[in-house]
Amino acid sequence: MKVGIVGAGNVGATAAFAMVLTGAASEIVLVDANAALAIAQAHDILHATPLSRPVRVSAGGYADLKGAGVVILSAGVGQRPGEPRLELLGRNAKVFGEIIPAVLEACPDAILLVASNPLDIMTEIAAKISGLPPGRVFGSGTILDTQRFRALLGEHLGVSPTSVHAYVLGEHGDSEMLWWSGATAGSLSVAEMARQQGRPLDDSARAAIDEAVRRAAYAIIAGKGATWFGIGGGLARIVQAIRSDERVLLSVSAMNADVEGIRDVTLSLPRVVGATGVISTLRPVLDPGERAALRRSAEILKEAAAGLSL
């Protein structure tokens, strides 16, 4: 499957590299306003293909996206010092207003996968600008936060994170909600797994994991300026699911008609992802505290989106 990436910075380039390593795509085209950057990234990634997968990697313009099954949108502008969040959103909405029509002119049947921050609001903007059917435009959502949650739970339990099934729901951001009551490992609740492993998962341990998941991006940004490896791997995983029509459950962001009484809000829930994009959405069974936390996350996102005019 041919994949386009608009925005050849760290996130877009790392996603392309991850797709080369995993074979998630057969062809990758990088597009960027800085053509020299796109060319350099494409050449650098291409040079890894003799030792990995025979993926064709190139740089080009929007017309070169023709035939792409998925286009990752990782372009956007950075926040200026002291700039209000809504002004940043407005500027990024303008960027998407230029990018998305050009993408759809070249590949009208593509699935749009949003990776630009603030993720949930940018996903909603992309859906409105594109006018695509539900399921064909969605964001990477909390897939990265979910990866962090599973990795930390696996470390605490002393098992591989691939044996842990747990999700982060809501906003990809500070109001996200760790779905503790639904977390399992080896078909056991994580609490029971912890007991059997002799690794208690008490309130203190849960709070430490919650804080580490929620603050992970801040810690990484403090050390190196931005995050890109984790999300690059997550984007490659989503593309792989689409290419192989896996119908796998992933916590991605899309418009929801109703979330805990909040109407028409874009956030992450567990969704079945396959060849046509998001196929269906699951409604998690939450305890009262989790329901309140998810509602609060939905309220925050609804309020942020309300200030935008497209």
Strand-helix topology:
Layout: E1 2-6, H1 10-22, E2 27-31, H2 35-46, E3 56-59, E4 70-73, H3 85-106, E5 111-114, H4 119-130, E6 137-139, H5 143-157, E7 164-165, E8 168-169, E9 177-178, E10 184-185, E11 188-189, H6 190-197, H7 203-214, H8 216-224, H9 229-243, E12 248-259, E13 262-274, E14 277-281, H10 288-306
Parallel strand pairs: 1-2, 1-4, 2-3, 4-5, 5-6
Antiparallel strand pairs: 7-10, 8-9, 10-11, 12-13, 13-14
Word description of this protein:
With 310 residues, the protein is of the alpha/beta class. It has helices spanning 10-22, 35-46, 85-106, 119-130, 143-157, 190-197, 203-214, 216-224, 229-243, 288-306; strands at 2-6, 27-31, 56-59, 70-73, 111-114, 137-139, 164-165, 168-169, 177-178, 184-185, 188-189, 248-259, 262-274, 277-281. Helix 1 packs parallel to helix 2, helix 3 (85-106) crosses helix 4 (119-130) and helix 5 runs antiparallel to helix 7 (203-214). The longest helix has 22 residues, at 85-106. It is globular, with a radius of gyration of 19 Å. The relative contact order is 0.14.
The biggest sheet amounts to: 6 strands, parallel
Proportion in β-strands: 15-25%
Please provide the ordered H/E string of secondary-structure elements. EHEHEEHEHEHEEEEEHHHHEEEH
Mean pLDDT: 94
Structural class: alpha/beta
Number of helices: 10
Work out the helicity level: 40-55%
* Gross morphology: globular
Low-confidence stretches: none
**What's the gyration radius in Å?**
19 Å
Distance linking N and C termini: 32 Å
Number-wise, the strands total 14
Strand order of the largest sheet: 3-2-1-4-5-6
